[in-house]
Amino acid sequence: MWSFSVGLFLIEIAPENLRLTATYGLLSGIMIFFMGAIVGNWVDKTERLKTVKISLFIQNSSVIACAIVVAVYLTWKTQIVDTWNGFGDILSKIVIIGLAIIARLASLAGNISVRNDWIVEISERDPTKLAYMTAALRRIDLAVKLLSPVLAGQLMTYISIVAGSLFIAVWNFISVFIEYFLLYKVFQAVPTLATKKKSVTAGEEQQESNDVEGTSNSVEESTESPQLEAMKVSSDDTQPKPDESSPKACSRLAKHPLCVSFFSGIFTLYNGWSIYLKYDVAPAGFGLALVYMTALGFDNITVGFAYSQGITESILGILMACGAIIGIMSTFVYPRIRNKIGLSRTGLISFSLEIFCLTLCLMSIIAPGNPYKFMTYPHLIEKTTASQNNASMAIYNVTSTTSSEFSTQSNITSTTVAPENVKKLSSYISIALLMGGIITARFGLWSADLTVTQLFMENVDESERGVVNGVQNSLNMLMDMLKFLLVILISETSDFYILIIISYMFICFGGMSFARYSYRARGHLFHFDKVCACSKQ
């Protein structure tokens, strides 16, 4: 609910342009890119229940505080803008964006812990159980993402944005207790969850004690994970050993924990990527990350483009619901396909199916009704009452497009371009092919996502799940940021075909990267020998 609403809040705060929204998207992407490995490393080093407790508290506290600040700002906007010659306005926006980013980082920690670590222990490391449980989690996630924004969107539409922000604050205050209670019950029901890295924690405490007191150079090897050993080796190489250094040096080191934390964070970032790349499943993860560099999804970009082509809010809402249903269907089919043909083949089929479906999007470039300059059908286009420039502005109309993402009501009016001023086409073949390709590709997309997720769960060591999944999230965010940069450079609706082609190419590269992993793991992609044998018969 919050991830949907924060975009609307930022547009309501600064309706004149998308600078504030773009700033939030870019800064949050940068933070996740650089902090993903560090957050994952913290998850690895912290006991499971403590990780969930801290992440839930920080996430919900940040959301509550941010929602209250938004409500206060929107209620007394005039007074705040005039405070301190406009500095109050700037400070409020900084606080809102900062709290939203903190909430997102805390959410990342919780997701890595529960979805990528807990679930492996709950499934008793059984691949079949793991497949069904990951699919069930994804199904719940898709259903919640479809239903919760509807409630928030209708509340903001028919009451007010302020009421919506206060509702979110109250909801997060209540839900944090419910979430923790349910997770605590799961923690009690699965004894193996309580055994995570107690020895690692003890080893860390002993190492820290030895560093400060200067009485020993090492700790017992049996209490350290490979990651801690790597950190210890690096520390031994770059710092004087306690028995070789002067007491003053040890004292200075102990008195500057911030410096130690800073360089430790840099090392964790570097070490996280090294750990990620050592696994054979890294090409599969990179293939999944490449899929994030796409404008062919139900985000503000594509929805805004569809709106500029005359698709109403009601139709957009229905199309998004269809896409969600297709995605949910894939979560039912995925475990059965995986049981029949295995993970690698399932991934190959999933990527291939996604690429095949998105071919419809390529066809939309030259189909009748397309708005592109190099291929037009003038006899199919009715005269419009607005210029092409007004139509192209709809791609950035987040207020209308994000509302229509989750609403099937047709009475939501755009604040920038009215529906009657948007270009109306006699042929909707082009936009129908585009949306049809995006909707049908949801099946392959989510199947591929589930496949890669389970590959990481099965192949990554328990002590390194957090840092590896943190790096994967960083890769995903890097590609997402690249998408936004491309949209900034290619902003006209008449040039949207360039985004379609680039997105299609990146998804093909993603499929090739997964195929590379599959070939390394299995020694082949397809059984050509069996096909040839059958043809000879």
Q: How would you explain this protein's 3D organization?
A:
With 537 residues, the chain is an all-alpha fold. The protein has one domain: Growth Hormone, Chain: A. The chain contains 21 helices and no strands. Helix 1 runs parallel beside helix 3 (48-75), helix 2 crosses helix 11 and helix 2 runs antiparallel to helix 19 (465-489).
User: What percent of residues adopt helix (DSSP H or I)?
Assistant: over 70%
The shape, in one word, is globular
Overall CATH architecture: Up-down Bundle
Number of helices: 21
CATH names the topology as Growth Hormone, Chain: A
Number of strands: 0
Q: Give the low-pLDDT segments.
A: 198-258, 381-422
The total tally of domains equals 1
Mean pLDDT: 75
Membrane topology: Multi-pass membrane protein
InterPro entries: Ferroportin-1 (IPR009716), MFS_trans_sf (IPR036259)
Family: Belongs to the ferroportin (FP) (TC 2.A.100) family. SLC40A subfamily.
Biased composition (Polar residues): 212-226
